[in-house]
C-alpha cells in the first residue's frame, strides 16, 4: 500500500498546483485547504474534505475542474467521490485519553498542579543542566564566568549579573549554575526565585505581619538566584528589601546571581545604591546565537528527544528562525509533533510549509516591492504612492505601506519617509499610529491587511 | 431579479441571516447575503462555513434572479432607513437597487456565482416543537467548555434515552443535563453541536412557535421550520461517558429555597477569593446549613440558611459561579442538593422534577 499512498499524495499535490492557477487565491485557500486524496479504488478517487459545506461546494462548483485535472494526470481515473474526514489528526489521537478521564478526575485539574520536575526546596528545574547547554561565541563569556562561580562560589564574581533579551538561555544558565552547585556541594542551600515571586512573598509577609520571617527565609540560603530582575523598577519597598538581602549575602561571602533583560543602568527607576552594587561584581551579556550555534542547539534538542532529522532540514530551520532560542525550540517542536504523528521523516517541502506560519515575513523585501504590491492591490498607479498628493485613496494606500514597512519589515521611520517621497519621519509615525488605531474598529481594513500579508509570502 | 415585499418582514430576516455571514474569512463573498427571488418567495442565504442559513420571505416576484450584497451594509440600511411600508428590490447589472416611496438606494453587488451552496442534510430525522428544543438547549448550553482544546466538550451533546431527548454539556468542572419528552423519536446515539453555533440556533428559533424538523447525519445537522432552514456542522468526536460520574446514592441531602440560596451565594461572591471559592458546611444534628467565604483583602462572611437536611455532616468548597449558573434552569421554588462525600460531585436538581440535573465538582484547596 505504501507506494500507492505516496502516489496519491503526489498526484493530489500536482492537481492542486494545477487548480491553484485556474481559480482565485481566496477561493483556492477557502475550498481546497485541508483536502487530500484518501484512497483510490479501481479508478475511483476519494477526496477527503473537512466538512459538508466544502463537499457541497466542490461538487456544485469545482467538480468539473477537479475531474478534468485528475484525469489529465491520472489516466486510470473513472470517477471522483468526496468524503468528509477529520482534519485535525492530533485530536483523534487524544480522544481516547479524554474518554477515560472522567470528570471526577478533574477535581485535581482545578488545583494548581505542582510541576513534578521542580523540587520545592530550591525551585530549580533539573532540566536546566549544563549537559544540554550549548556554548557559542554569543554566550561564552557568560558561560566561563558561570564555571568560575561553580568552582568557587561567593568569592570571585559576586554578584553575578547576566542580561540579554528574551529567549536566549539566561534562565537555563543561571539554573544550571544552581544545579551544578547543588551537585558539587550538597551541603549548600540553593534557592531560585523570580523577582515577581520575591515581591509577592514580601507583600504577603507584610500583610500577615510576618516581615521577620520573610527576612529569615531569604537570608538562610548559600546561593540565591533571582530571575527577571528588570521588573523591580517601580517596586520601591522590594528594592529596599533586596538591598538589605543583598548586603547580607555579600558580607558573608555567599553567592548571589541576577538575570535581567536589560543592563542595570537601563532598568528604569532602579535606585543608585542597587545599580552600583550590581556593578560591583560581574556583568555579562548574552547576545543572539549565530547560525552555527543555532544548528548545534537544534542537534542537542533532537538528541534529547531521540529523533533524527535530515541535516538539510536542520539547516533550513536554523537559517529561517533567527535570534530567539525559544522560537527555535517552538519551530522544532512543531516539526517533531508532525514527525511523531506521521511516523516518518519529513521532507524539506513539508517543513517549509509547516514553518510558513511561524515565521515573520522575510525582512529582505525591497520597499519598492511593498509599494508595488499594495498599489496593485488597491488598483492604483505605483508612482502615485510616491507623489505629493492628498487624494484619499492614495493617502490610505501610502499609510498602509508605511505601516506594513514598520510593523512587518522593521524599517526605520526616517528611512520609510525618505523612500516614500521625502516625508518627514513624524509623518510616518503619525501614519502608522493612524492605521493601528483604525484597525481596532475597522474589520474591513484588517481583512485587507491580512490579504496583503498573504501576498508578501 | 425584481420583486416587492414588506419591509418589516425583510428587516427581521436580514438581522437573523446577517449574524451568520462569514466574518474574517479569506473569501470575501462570505461576508455577503445572497438574495434569491424564485416562485413566491424571496430567499436570503448566508453561511460562515460552519453554519448555514436560508430564510423565506413571501414576496411579489416580477422577475426571478439572484444577487449577492454585503450583509453588514444591508443590515445597516434596513435597521435605519425605512418605516413600515413596501420595498422594491431589483438587480441591475449585478447591483441591487432598493426603492421605497421616499428613498432610492443602489448597493454594489458581488459576484454571486462564487456564493456557496448550503448542504441539504440527508439522514435520520424527527420533529420537535421549537419551545421544547430551545428549552432543552437553554437549560444546559452555559455549561459547555469555551475553550477549543477539546471540541467534544465545547459543544452541546444531544442523545436519546427511551422517549426523552437528552441535552448535556460540561466543561469538566460542572455538568448540566436536561431531559425533554418528545414523541416519535428515532434512536440517537449522540450528536455534538459546536458551542459557537448553539447561540445562533437559540437566536434564530428563540422566538419561534412552530414545529421544527431536525435532520442529522454524522457530519451535519439541520433545523427547518416553515420559513427557516438552518444547518450546522457537528463535531466528530466522543462525548465523555458522563452517566458513570453521576453519584448513584447520597450521604447528605438538603432542600433549600432557591431564592435564599441565590441571595446567600451573591453575598458570598463579594468575599470570595480569586478562585471564586465558597465553602459550604452542613451539619444535620445542629441543623446548620452555612455558606462562607473569605478574602484577605476584603474580609469574610458567613450566611446561614433554613434548610431541610438529612444524613451526615459535610464540609466542602466549590466555585460559586458554577452554582449560580444552574439557577437559570431551575424553575421550581426550592432546590435539592445531594452530597456523597467531600470529594465527589454535588448534585443540584429542582425539587420534584427529575428532568434537570446539575453536577458541580467540589474544590478542596
Descriptive tags:
heterodimer, A: 457 residues, alpha/beta, GMP Synthetase, Chain A, domain 3, Rossmann fold, Helicase, Ruva Protein, domain 3, 4 domains, five-stranded parallel sheet, three-stranded mixed sheet, 8 strands, globular, B: 365 residues, alpha+beta, DNA Polymerase III, Chain A, domain 2, nine-stranded antiparallel sheet, 6 helices, 18% helix, elongated
What does this structure look like?
The complex is a heterodimer of chains A (457) and B (365). Chain A is α/β, with parallel strands linked by helices and 457 residues long. Chain A has 4 domains: 2-84, DnaA, N-terminal domain (GMP Synthetase, Chain A, domain 3); 130-285, P-loop containing nucleotide triphosphate hydrolases (Rossmann fold, 3-Layer(aba) Sandwich); 291-356, Helicase, Ruva Protein, domain 3 (Orthogonal Bundle); 367-456, DnaA protein, C-terminal DNA-binding domain (Chromosomal Replication Initiator Protein Dnaa, Chain: A). Chain A is built from 21 helices and 8 strands. Chain A has helices at residues 2-22, 25-31, 52-73, 89-100, 106-110, 140-151, 170-184, 195-207, 211-219, 236-251, 272-280, 291-305, 311-320, 325-342, 348-356, 367-377, 382-386, 392-409, 413-419, 425-441, 443-456; strands spanning 36-41, 44-49, 79-84, 160-163, 190-194, 223-227, 255-260, 282-285. In chain A, helix 6 runs parallel beside helix 7 (170-184), helix 13 (311-320) packs parallel to helix 15 (348-356) and helix 16 packs across helix 18. The longest helix of chain A is centred in the first third of the chain and has 22 residues, at 52-73. Chain A is globular and about 85 Å long. The two termini of chain A are 36 Å apart. Helix content of chain B is 18%, strand content 43%. Chain B has helices at 7-18, 71-80, 130-140, 195-205, 258-271, 320-326, and strands spanning 2-6, 32-38, 41-47, 51-58, 60-63, 65-70, 86-92, 95-99, 104-107, 109-110, 124-129, 155-161, 164-170, 174-181, 191-194, 211-216, 220-224, 228-233, 252-257, 277-283, 288-295, 299-304, 307-311, 314-319, 334-339, 346-350, 356-360. In chain B, the strands form 4 sheets. A 9-stranded antiparallel β-sheet of chain B has the order 10-6-2-3-4-18-17-16-11. A 9-stranded antiparallel β-sheet of chain B has the order 15-12-13-14-27-26-25-19-23. In chain B, strands 5-1-7-8-9 form a 5-stranded antiparallel β-sheet. Chain B is elongated and about 80 Å long. The termini of chain B are far apart.
Amino acid at each position: 500500500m505504501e507506494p500507492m499512498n505516496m502516489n496519491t499524495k503526489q498526484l493530489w499535490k500536482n492537481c492542486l498546483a494545477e487548480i491553484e492557477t485556474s481559480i482565485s487565491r481566496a477561493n483556492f485557500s477557502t475550498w481546497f485547504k485541508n483536502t487530500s486524496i484518501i484512497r483510490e479504488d479501481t479508478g475511483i478517487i476519494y477526496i477527503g474534505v473537512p466538512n459538508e459545506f466544502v463537499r457541497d461546494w466542490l461538487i456544485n462548483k469545482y467538480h468539473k475542474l477537479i475531474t478534468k485535472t485528475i484525469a489529465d494526470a491520472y489516466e486510470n481515473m473513472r470517477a471522483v467521490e468526496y468524503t468528509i474526514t477529520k482534519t485535525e489528526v492530533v485530536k483523534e489521537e487524544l480522544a481516547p485519553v479524554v474518554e477515560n478521564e472522567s470528570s471526577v478526575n478533574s477535581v485535581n485539574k482545578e488545583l494548581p498542579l505542582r510541576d513534578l520536575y521542580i523540587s520545592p526546596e530550591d525551585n530549580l528545574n533539573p532540566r536546566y543542566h549544563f549537559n544540554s547547554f550549548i556554548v557559542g561565541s554569543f554566550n561564552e563569556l557568560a558561560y566561563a564566568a558561570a564555571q568560575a562561580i561553580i568552582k568557587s562560589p561567593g568569592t570571585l564574581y559576586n554578584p553575578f549579573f547576566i542580561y540579554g533579551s528574551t529567549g536566549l538561555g539566561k534562565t537555563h544558565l543561571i539554573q544550571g549554575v544552581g544545579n551544578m552547585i547543588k551537585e558539587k556541594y550538597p551541603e549548600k542551600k540553593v534557592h531560585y526565585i523570580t523577582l515577581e515571586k520575591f515581591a509577592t512573598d514580601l507583600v504577603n509577609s507584610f500583610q500577615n505581619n510576618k516581615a521577620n520571617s520573610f527576612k529569615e527565609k531569604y537570608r538562610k540560603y548559600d546561593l540565591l538566584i533571582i530571575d527577571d530582575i528588570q521588573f523591580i523598577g517601580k517596586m520601591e519597598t522590594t528594592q529596599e528589601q533586596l538591598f538589605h538581602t543583598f548586603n547580607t549575602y555579600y558580607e558573608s561571602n555567599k553567592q548571589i546571581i541576577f538575570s535581567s533583560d536589560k543592563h542595570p543602568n537601563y532598568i528604569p527607576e532602579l535606585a543608585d545604591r542597587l545599580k552600583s552594587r550590581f556593578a560591583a561584581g560581574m556583568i555579562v551579556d548574552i547576545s543572539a546565537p549565530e547560525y552555527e550555534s543555532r544548528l548545534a542547539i537544534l542537534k542537542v534538542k533532537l538528541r534529547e528527544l531521540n529523533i533524527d532529522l535530515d541535516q538539510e532540514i536542520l539547516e533550513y530551520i536554523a537559517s529561517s528562525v533567527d535570534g530567539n532560542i525559544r522560537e527555535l525550540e517552538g519551530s522544532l517542536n512543531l516539526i517533531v509533533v508532525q514527525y511523531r504523528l506521521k511516523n516518518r521523516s519529513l521532507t524539506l517541502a513539508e517543513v517549509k510549509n509547516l514553518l510558513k506560519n511561524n515565521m515573520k515575513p522575510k525582512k529582505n523585501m525591497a520597499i519598492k516591492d511593498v509599494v508595488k504590491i499594495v498599489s496593485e492591490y488597491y488598483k492604483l498607479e505605483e508612482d502615485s504612492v510616491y507623489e505629493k498628493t492628498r487624494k484619499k485613496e492614495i493617502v490610505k494606500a501610502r499609510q498602509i505601506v508605511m505601516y506594513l514597512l514598520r510593523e512587518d519589515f522593521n524599517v526605520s521611520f526616517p528611512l520609510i519617509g525618505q523612500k516614500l517621497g521625502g516625508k518627514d519621519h513624524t509623518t510616518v509615525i503619525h501614519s502608522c499610529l493612524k492605521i493601528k488605531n483604525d484597525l481596532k474598529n475597522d474589520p474591513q481594513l484588517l481583512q485587507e491587511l491580512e490579504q496583503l500579508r498573504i501576498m508578501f509570502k | 431579479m425584481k420583486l416587492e415585499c414588506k419591509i418589516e418582514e425583510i428587516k427581521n430576516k436580514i438581522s437573523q441571516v446577517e449574524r451568520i455571514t462569514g466574518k474574517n474569512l479569506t473569501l470575501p463573498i462570505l461576508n455577503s447575503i445572497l438574495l434569491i427571488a424564485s416562485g413566491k418567495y424571496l430567499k436570503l442565504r448566508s453561511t460562515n462555513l460552519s453554519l448555514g442559513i436560508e430564510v423565506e420571505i413571501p414576496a411579489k416576484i416580477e422577475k426571478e434572479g439572484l444577487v449577492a450584497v454585503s450583509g453588514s451594509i444591508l443590515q445597516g440600511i434596513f435597521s435605519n432607513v425605512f418605516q413600515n411600508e413596501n420595498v422594491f428590490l431589483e438587480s441591475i447589472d449585478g447591483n441591487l437597487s432598493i426603492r421605497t416611496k421616499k428613498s432610492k438606494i443602489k448597493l454594489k453587488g458581488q459576484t454571486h456565482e462564487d456564493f456557496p451552496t448550503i448542504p441539504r442534510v440527508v439522514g435520520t430525522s424527527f420533529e420537535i416543537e421549537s419551545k421544547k428544543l430551545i428549552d432543552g438547549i437553554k437549560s444546559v448550553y452555559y455549561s459547555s467548555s469555551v475553550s477549543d482544546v477539546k471540541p467534544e466538550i465545547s459543544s452541546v451533546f444531544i442523545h436519546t434515552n427511551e422517549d426523552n431527548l437528552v441535552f448535556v454539556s460540561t466543561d469538566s468542572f460542572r455538568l448540566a443535563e436536561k431531559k425533554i419528552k418528545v414523541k416519535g423519536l428515532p434512536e440517537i446515539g449522540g450528536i455534538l453541536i459546536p458551542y459557537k453555533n448553539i447561540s445562533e440556533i437559540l437566536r434564530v428559533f428563540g422566538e419561534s412557535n412552530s414545529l421544527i424538523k431536525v435532520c442529522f447525519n454524522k457530519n451535519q445537522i439541520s433545523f427547518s421550520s416553515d420559513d427557516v432552514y438552518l444547518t450546522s456542522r457537528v463535531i466528530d468526536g466522543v462525548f465523555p461517558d458522563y452517566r458513570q460520574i453521576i453519584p448513584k446514592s447520597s450521604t447528605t441531602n438538603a432542600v433549600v429555597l432557591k431564592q435564599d440560596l441565590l441571595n446567600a451565594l451573591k453575598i458570598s461572591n463579594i468575599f470570595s477569593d480569586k478562585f471564586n471559592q465558597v465553602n459550604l458546611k452542613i451539619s444535620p444534628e445542629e441543623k446548620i446549613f452555612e455558606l462562607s467565604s473569605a478574602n484577605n483583602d476584603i474580609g469574610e462572611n458567613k450566611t446561614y440558611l433554613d434548610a431541610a437536611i438529612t444524613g451526615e455532616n459535610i464540609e466542602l468548597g466549590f466555585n460559586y459561579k458554577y452554582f449560580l449558573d444552574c439557577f437559570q434552569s431551575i424553575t421550581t421554588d426550592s432546590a435539592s442538593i445531594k452530597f456523597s462525600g467531600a470529594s465527589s460531585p454535588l448534585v443540584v436538581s429542582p425539587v420534584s422534577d427529575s428532568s434537570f440535573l446539575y453536577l458541580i465538582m467540589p474544590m478542596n484547596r
